[in-house]
Amino acid sequence: xxxxxxxxxVVSFLWAIxxxxxxxxxxxxxxxxxxxxxxxxxxxxxxxRTVNDCCCGTGGMLTIAKDxxxxxxxxxxxxLYGQELNPQTWAIARSDMLILEPEGKDAENxxxxxxxxxxxxxxxxxxxxxxxxxxxxxxxVNVAVEERCAPTA
Length: 153
Hints:
single chain; globular
């Protein structure tokens, strides 16, 4: 991919992120952002990529990312990770991971709990990182951050 094309992809990606942050989006637009991956990151032999969504909900962005990487390179190994606060959506995400990877490795990588107060994947590094912040839980997030960052006596 030539430099102007790469620059246009980056600009498109940044504008899409800005639209998301302003609330001017529909759920289907998350897929558009995921599909803006630089295909060079998934091409080649022996490619293994890790993808994390630290507010993964039901795991939809993770599964779309895996599908997209494997469309670019069917031999690529994709390892999914995530963390979810809500027990019901966490269970759905784990179930979805079991369907995608019957051996269960991806399902084991989906953690239950708050990323802010108990990041269970803090020791890991990822090739791709997604964050769709839980704005509907914004007050709870503020409280968690304030408690975590409060000065100790």
